[in-house]
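dumping this here so i dont lose it
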């Protein structure tokens, strides 16, 4: 019986793809964690503070650098692979124009938002994250669309690995560095990886072509994808900002450490979800009722690692202080409070990706925006009164509530009459055709 399950898992494309994504994400997380430690020693507190302030500001706007170009590629090329060249070209066009405009905007407003001596650091980081990193992310999603997760995971990991190597070399050679020096190094690395990513896509799928009319036509939908990612950042990280705002630095350290373990525990779930994501777009041309069975199947698959993660984190939480130090003793309690979050994410991600695949991203955005606003209000009320306990309660309510809202929206949209009308509208938009067979692929024409 067990051998049959193992054999089935080895032959499953979804499991193999999830394995590559999990390996890439896991290694990337480890490398980034090591890089943060090295950077803290390399830059020291003042320079690190300058870098952190600039990174925070760039992170807020970088979500809009590609304007959802990768998701648009996945959505429309999954349904019609002949459109690959145009959507890849438009992804590059979008990053260069919109990402470049964001850099110019930060150049203008930066002096009013951060210290003037941080402006050059801000611009170097903006060029890196809003332009070149977005090119790499878009290229990664091209390979993800065709379920070539090994290449996608490699591109995702490459930037982190090179930054780690460069930071380690700077620490060994110079011992100390300024924030602008690291920002410049980061920009050079991002440029190199972006150039490699463009070359890899061109070698595999041919040269890009550009269609400004199509770009403007899809810009509204791309904006929805971009702002959707932004709202996710809000309800995942706002609690840590508020804890710091109220000066609860020890509580923030305890809570952030526990939350990092939660993110590690969620990695297998995220890998399975990422591997299944392109299939939602392939089936989504027939409306929400076509993706509903897929969402149910995915939910059943990811609940297994979700339950294992919850049990593992609850049982082995006491080991945490031995790994990170006794000052994080209270993180044991925080981790046990938060350990249900992977289960809640199983529900929110399975239904949320189904909504995106069916072309109903705006409903997913409404759910996420509601979750973000609710999380903000809960944190503003609970954190001043209950410290990190309040943040934990707000996170549990937010993630649980988002799962309920996403599934309620999916079940509503999957009603036969509603779904048939939606599918007809999607086909009438102009370029959506039925998916090609699995053996058909884009050539180098």
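and the seq i came up w/
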């Amino acid at each position: 019986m067990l051998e049959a399950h193992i054999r089935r898992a080895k032959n499953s494309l979804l499991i193999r793809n999830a394995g590559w994504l999990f390996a890439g994400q896991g290694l990337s997380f480890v490398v980034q964690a090591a890089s943060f430690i090295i950077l803290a020693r390399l830059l020291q507190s003042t320079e690190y503070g300058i870098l952190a302030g600039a990174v925070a500001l760039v992170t807020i706007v970088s979500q809009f650098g590609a304007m959802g170009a990768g998701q648009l590629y996945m959505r429309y090329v999954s349904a019609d692979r002949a459109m690959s060249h145009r959507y890849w070209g438009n992804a590059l066009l979008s990053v260069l124009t919109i990402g470049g405009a964001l850099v110019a905007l930060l150049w203008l407003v930066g002096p009013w938002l951060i210290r003037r001596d941080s402006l050059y650091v801000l611009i170097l980081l903006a060029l890196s994250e809003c332009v070149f990193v977005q090119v790499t992310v878009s290229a990664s999603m091209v390979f993800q669309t065709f379920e070539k997760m090994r290449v996608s995971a490699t591109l995702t990991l490459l930037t982190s690995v090179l930054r780690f190597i460069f930071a380690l070399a700077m620490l060994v050679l110079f011992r100390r560095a300024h924030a602008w020096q690291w920002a410049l190094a980061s920009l050079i690395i991002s440029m190199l990886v972006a150039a490699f990513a463009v070359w890899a896509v061109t070698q595999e799928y041919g040269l890009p072509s550009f269609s400004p009319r199509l770009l403007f036509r899809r810009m509204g939908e791309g904006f929805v994808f971009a702002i959707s990612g932004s709202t996710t950042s809000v309800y995942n990280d706002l609690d840590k900002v508020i804890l710091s705002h109220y000066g609860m630095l020890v509580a923030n350290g305890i809570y952030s450490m526990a939350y990092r373990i939660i993110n590690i525990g969620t990695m297998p779930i995220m890998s399975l979800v990422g591997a299944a994501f392109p299939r939602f777009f392939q089936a989504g041309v027939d409306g929400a009722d076509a993706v509903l069975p897929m969402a149910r199947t995915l939910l059943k698959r990811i609940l297994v690692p979700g339950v294992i993660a919850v049990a593992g984190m609850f049982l082995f939480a006491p080991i945490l202080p031995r790994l990170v130090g006794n000052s994080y003793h209270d993180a044991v309690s925080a981790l046990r409070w938060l350990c249900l979050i992977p289960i809640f994410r199983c529900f929110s991600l399975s239904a949320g990706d189904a909504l995106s695949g069916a072309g109903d991203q705006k409903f997913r955005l409404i759910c996420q925006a509601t979750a973000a606003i609710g999380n903000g209000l809960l944190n503003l009320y609970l954190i001043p009164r209950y410290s990190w306990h309040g943040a934990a309660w707000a996170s549990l309510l937010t993630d649980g509530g988002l799962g309920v809202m996403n599934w309620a929206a999916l079940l509503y949209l999957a009603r036969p009459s509603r779904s048939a009308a939606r599918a007809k509208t999607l086909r009438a938009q102009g370029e959506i055709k039925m998916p090609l067979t699995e053996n058909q692929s884009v050539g180098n024409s």
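The CA atoms of residues 67 and 220 lie 9 Å apart.
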